[in-house]
Amino acid sequence: MGKKSTAEATEKILKAMSSNSEQGLAIQDISKKADVSWDCTKRHLESFVKSKIVREYNKEGKAHYQMMCPITKSDTLFSLPLSEEHRRAIKKIYATIKIVWKQITNKPLSKTLVQKIAVDVVEQKYKDIPRGWYLYGELLVLSFEADEDYQEILTKKEEVDCVKAVCRDYLGYCDASYKIRRHQYEKKDNKLYLIKEDLMYCLGYSDFNDSAQKMKIRQLLNEFAVTIERTEENAVMLAIADDFVAETLAIFRHNNEEELRKARSTIMNVFKKIWILAATYEFYESLKAFYDKEFLQGRFFDKFELLKDNALESLEELNDFKPKGDFPKDETAKKLKALMGTAKETSPEDKIKRKKEIEKIKQEKGEKGIDRFLQESFANSQLS
Hints:
By secondary structure, the protein is mainly α. The protein has helices spanning 3-18, 27-34, 38-50, 84-104, 111-125, 157-170, 177-187, 191-205, 211-227, 235-254, 257-287, 293-315, 331-340, 348-383; strands at residues 25-26, 54-59, 62-67, 131-134, 137-140. The protein has three domains: 3-67, Arc Repressor Mutant, subunit A, CATH 1.10.10.10; 77-184, no CATH class; 190-383, no CATH class. The strands form two sheets. The protein has a three-stranded antiparallel β-sheet with strand order 1-3-2. 35% of the residues are buried.
């Protein structure tokens, strides 16, 4: 079954069960209501049980299935299901953060800050609550809402002490959102998100008359291209990201300062769309620790397709600034292409080996060598 068919079956089964959430249904009844084959329904239900979306129980000698948490609630990211136990725990954490923060400082408490603190508390005290890396870092699937009246608070001393410790940890970074984000990225050693943060800043504020600043942008682009984790599911996203990097490197190499200033806003807008696509895949991968893969495919498939289309369309905006002519070819470019040109999932050992080889080539040829590889990769992709 293809990804689209899997996604459609997932949504049909969940819809059928949601319409009868007060009582459980047998596989045969769910299959009939969803218009999905018995075998497919059974396979999906087994995965939903593992993800604690559905509970299985015996009734009159038959297995029955009942929704454990609402699927259609819109207060979670991507309308992801969340058990009432987890929902209540998250709200208690948010309420406690608000109280503790007022006790230790009179500095403002932003939504970004609350969500970063909450993730750290959950990782220490509630490890099974769903969370993942998304656009601006790691967060819980149930977002904090400043206007909501969170009444229940944490009562266990060790949990309250944990909140206090995490609040103090962020106290020195709370005066700006970028500081809050960066603190989280550095604490958790997330290189991709650190590169994204630096690249956003440099593309937006660098002086294109300064050769050192332009070289920094080219270095960050190269690092962005090789840092995204490569899996079988994100091959198209990686190809789009690689094309963006190659085109942007070519623009920086072959255009003067005035032309680069004209291209700045376009490059920024394209990168934002590329990042939304990449970050959505990061979120999807993060959530596999908490939800079944087939269920997530059903939730994310249409979103991925839309974001890929948007990103591909945005790449065309760079055409006005692209240099003409062929890119140089050399042995370094060929070797780098062999190292990076696959979108297949590789073993951890192969990933380490590839990164070491790339680093070796970088030391031998410098950033220009990697620039050339990425440019040639893009040029070849246009001919294939």
